[in-house]
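Hi! If you just cloned this repository, the fastest way to understand the data is to look at a raw example. We've pasted two of them here, unedited. The first protein comes first, obviously.
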Amino acid sequence: MNILSSNQTTTKPTGSFFRSNPVMNRLNKMDIASAAPDEKAAGYGRITVKTAYFLLMSVVGMLAYLALNQFIFSGQAQALNFEYKGFTFTTSMMTVIYAAVAGILAIITQLIAAFVPASIPVTGTIYSMCQGFIISFLIFTVIKGYEYLGLLAFAITIVVVFTMSILYTTGVIRVTKKFKMVLMTLIFGMLGISLFSLIGYLIPLTRPFVGSILGNFWVSIGLTVLSLIIACLFLISDFAVIDHVVENRLPAKYEWMASFGLAFTILWIYVKILDLLIQIVGKNKK
């Protein structure tokens, strides 16, 4: 999969904290020498295969949840009632605990992968499986009866990834200083909104006001769309970093890092699209 466009440079891009997701950012900032003449260099084909591996592991995580739900969770007392973005569901304490553990493991393994690149074959696998487990929990428990939203989100994700890859390879979108400035502005804006919302919610006087704003359907949709736009821009940045890895003949061991970074972003895009669909359908249910 050669995603290097004739408009892209093969020199090392300028580093930026917000250039890509944590894993890709780490790779981009490392001062890595090209592979030695007798050392295997990174290749697009192997990066594609490794990316597919991580995505396949997310499917394994989804199947693991379905198996547990069929043989273990279904036998537990369905004593907990929740409402999530217009969907009301009942589940067991064990199911919630397993989902919470998967979420915590996903955070921990993501951080380890970012700071200990050599661990990615293991931590990346665990992260992908945990993400799949959480996705399956959302689709088959939280929005039970509307499982088709999972397939719809999958189809839209494929279209989005394919479209962004075309925009990158044709040079319509380039990873320039202006691109990075836009990405940084969006991320700082999202971080600012999150920080002020948290502070406002912690203050008793402003808590009702903040809660009413964040609970507004259109505000929630707007924030989700903004997150999705940021994820798509990160995807473009990931393509640029992969080009840097391959075209500058970095050692093949960095394929794992580049592959996991790309899979990380694709899963992020899928989750944001699924979340957007859940909000829209949940609103219609009301």
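Ok, and the second one:
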Amino acid sequence: MTLHRPALALALAMLLPLAALAQTQTRPLPQADRTPAPATSQGTQTGIATFGNAGEQQVIVRSYEADSILRDQYRIDFDALDSNGDGHLDRREAAAHPTLAAEFAGVDTNADGRLDREELRGWIR
């Protein structure tokens, strides 16, 4: 059996609303058993985002700096590493700090092969 274009169009026109309806039905999410506990981070807050429309329940997402376990990997004593006292750290001097040595190119924002205090602003104790 072959459907002609008008009959096919009519059949599709009748089925499309049903297909759309099946895809748009929603059910409410089950209620949570308890209210989530607030974060207990001791680090400095680094960001916040709020989601939701006015008059509705809103979701607040906060970000904090890394825990102290990682913090020491991203801290240096600039004067101790600057062995020649020129106010910059070259790759040889940075090699004494494994994390800094591994990320040297990313921290060297002006690509001059040396790191100054401004480039290391987040790293210096």
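That's it. A detail worth noticing about the second one: The radius of gyration is 29 Å.
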